[in-house]
Each structure stands twice: as structure tokens, then as C-alpha cells.
Design a protein that fits this description.
3-stranded antiparallel sheet; mainly alpha
């Protein structure tokens, strides 16, 4: 299929079932969801896949995925960045994708650890399952404690805690994602009547750093500006809104977006990735550009396998899928974009509605709006 246009109320029945089946096929008996068969497991991508399951009604499988997270959380509230074992996709090419040289020791990544709040809040929005939210609260609270232990006096948050060495540096993409995670953690806390003032303050300080302190990022390694995620994540996460968000996406649109294909992973490689394209759809919706979002998402279905799963990416010069993998998290990202466009679930606006940093009253209003929607 070359194109499929989706909009509010136009969710095609069964079209995305193959994407969910791919996630279910990869999910292990203990609930863990690896990238692909024999692949590693990392908390962030595991959660992205679990959100895809929630959207299409596989709630038991999603709860099992979150249960796996709770069972494997470390004492300090973090998770190992990678679990399981797999030969790299292609070690020479994979290092620029994965972001760390081969042979580096395992890390406890701040962004990976924070993302549980996004996944848990998403599942609650879909299901209105307060018992699930309460059961996951200790894991969310512990994870936020770990993340905030890495926040500097300048507001930025260190990208990881290493066992063998310390690196005091921050990533724009990672910190932007944490900004959204802190918002979702705050929403969870307010729903459960738990204190969250520290999280609101940390989010406010982090937002200020991302907007006004570019010198606090990429201080000890080469700039990550060639990565498309560094470009659109401040919009996707709600750090930049309205005109600032629109201008941010316009600035590098022609650098990262290949017309008729999708979003590049990095600016200097002819490699379109389905997950990045789907996330950019969410960023476009968040910045008030629904028609452009609809058009962009229409392109990704040419990378849909006959099974209904999606290739990780496509090399547009050689005209081949690369790598020849269909990751669970790619399917999750596609489903999140489809839900945001069509409004299928009560979580469809997860990345579109942003909690003001200095307005806890807004969180209360949004909580009540969600409560009455499900009453």
C-alpha cells in the first residue's frame, strides 16, 4: 500500500492488527518485549511496545509488560539500559544509531527509567483502571527518585548513571522525553492524591534548561544535532509549544524529511525510519499541523510487511529495508500515531495536551475531565 490517510473517526478496522500481533509474538512469557527475536530488551522501547498493546485492547498483555518492569526494577529505582543478548544489527552501522560504542559497560539510563510514567499513565487513560495505577505507583515513584538524583543545579538531567565511570552530560532528546515523563508522573500523583511538588519543580527547571541553556547539552561528546530526534523531541514532549513549536519543525524540515518517504534517522544518511516518522506525526499534531501530520503518516505504510508489521527502516538510495527487522517498538510508535490521528482511545491526546509547568490547577481540571469521561 502506497498511502493511507487517517483522520478523526477514520480508523480502519483490523488494518493495524498485524502490528499488534508482531508485539504479541515477540513478548516473552514473563512479559518482557525485546526489540525483535533474540534481541535486547530496554525499558523505553519495551514501554513503547506496551502502549501499542493497550491501544488495540490487549490489556492483559500490556499489564504483564508493566508487571515485568516492576519485577525487574533495581533498588535505586532504575533499570539496566539493556537486558538480554543479541548480536548487533551491524556493529559498524549500529553504533551511530544506538549512541554508544561497542563494549561500553551497562548503564542505568535516566530517560529509559523515567518513561515508565508515560506508559503507566497511557494505560490508565485507555482503561481507567485505577487499581493498575495504584499498583504501579511504587515503581513510578522510585523511578522518578532515581531520575531526579541526576538533575544538576542548572536543571538539565544527566543521561545515565554508570557503574564503572561517571559522565556528567545531558542529551536534548533524553531530557525532552524526561520532561514528558515528569508531566505524566505528576498526573499520576494528582490522580492518586500523592505529593508531586518536587516533580513539578524539577520539570519546570528542566524545561528552562532545554529552552534557554543549550550549552548544558552535548558538552563532552559531539553534538547530536544530526539526529532527527534532537530536532523534533522538544516539540513532541511539550517543551516547545504553539509558535515556538511550529518554527522549530519548520527550521529543519527539508533537512530531515524526504518527500514521499518519511523522516530520516540522521541528516547525513539516506535512511528513513518508521518510528521517527511516526513520532514526527505526533510532534506535528502537537504543533497544530494536522494536515501535514496526516500526509506524513500516509507515507509509512509502504514499509508495512504483508503480515501487517512494519520494517524498522528503509534505505531509500538502495531501495531496500534496512535492517531487515520489524521491531516491537516500531509497531508501538505506528499505533500511537494512528491513535492520535483518529482519536480511537482516551489516550489519543497523550502527546497533544500539555500540562502547564506552573499550573497544578490545570492538572486537576484535566483529571476531572478524564474521570467524568469514564464515569
Amino acid at each position: 500500500m502506497e498511502k493511507l490517510y487517517l483522520a478523526k473517526g477514520r480508523f480502519p478496522p483490523a488494518f493495524f492488527d498485524g502490528a499488534a500481533r508482531r508485539i504479541l509474538y515477540l513478548q516473552q512469557g514473563d512479559g518482557a518485549i525485546p526489540w525483535y527475536t533474540g534481541g535486547i530488551i530496554d525499558p523505553w522501547n519495551h514501554i513503547e511496545a506496551a502502549m501499542g498493546l493497550s491501544i488495540l485492547g490487549h490489556w492483559d498483555a500490556a499489564r504483564k509488560a508493566y508487571g515485568w518492569l516492576a519485577d525487574n526494577q533495581l533498588a535505586d529505582g532504575s533499570w539496566w539500559g539493556e537486558l538480554g543478548a543479541s548480536a548487533p544489527i551491524d556493529q559498524d552501522k549500529a553504533t551511530f544509531v544506538l549512541g554508544a560504542p561497542a563494549g561500553d559497560p551497562p548503564v542505568r539510563d535516566s530517560n529509559f527509567s523515567a518513561y515508565i510514567a508515560v506508559g503507566v499513565w497511557h494505560h490508565y487513560l485507555v482503561t481507567a483502571d485505577r487499581e493498575f495505577l495504584s499498583a504501579m505507583w511504587p515503581a513510578v515513584s522510585a523511578a522518578m527518585g532515581f531520575v531526579l538524583s541526576l538533575q544538576s543545579e542548572h536543571g538539565d538531567i544527566r543521561w545515565a548513571a554508570w557503574d564503572s565511570r561517571d559522565t556528567d552530560d545531558a542529551l536534548i532528546t533524553g531530557c525532552s522525553s524526561i520532561y514528558k515523563s515528569l508531566e505524566c508522573a505528576t498526573r499520576i500523583a494528582m490522580t492518586l492524591n500523592k505529593p508531586c511538588g518536587e516533580w513539578r519543580l524539577a520539570r519546570m527547571r528542566l524545561g528552562a534548561a532545554l529552552r534557554r541553556k543549550p550549552h548544558r547539552f552535548d558538552r563532552t561528546w559531539p553534538s547530536k544535532e544530526r539526529f532527527s530526534m534532537d530536532w523534533y523531541y522538544p516539540v513532541l514532549s511539550g517543551v516547545l509549544r504553539e509558535e515556538a513549536a511550529f518554527l522549530r519543525l519548520a527550521e529543519k524540515w527539508n533537512i530531515f524529511v524526504e518527500d514521499g518517504h518519511g523522516c530520516r534517522c540522521v541528516s547525513d544518511e539516506p535512511w528513513i525510519t518508521v518510528a521517527e516518522t511516526s513520532e514526527l506525526v505526533l510532534a506535528l499534531l502537537a504543533s497544530g499541523q494536522p494536515l501535514r501530520a496526516m500526509e506524513l503518516f500516509s507515507w509509512v505504510h509502504k514499509y508495512r510487511h504483508e503480515s501487517g508489521a512494519y520494517w524498522m527502516g528503509y534505505q531509500i538510495v538502495e531501495n531496500v529495508p534496512w535492517p531487515e527487522e520489524m521491531p516491537a517498538w516500531t509497531a508501538g510508535a505506528v499505533l500511537l500515531a494512528a491513535d492520535a490521528l483518529c482519536g480511537v482511545t482516551a489516550a489519543s491526546r497523550l502527546f497533544l495536551d500539555v500540562l502547564d509547568e506552573d499550573a497544578p490547577q490545570q492538572a486537576e481540571r484535566l483529571h476531572h475531565r478524564h474521570f467524568f469521561k469514564h464515569s
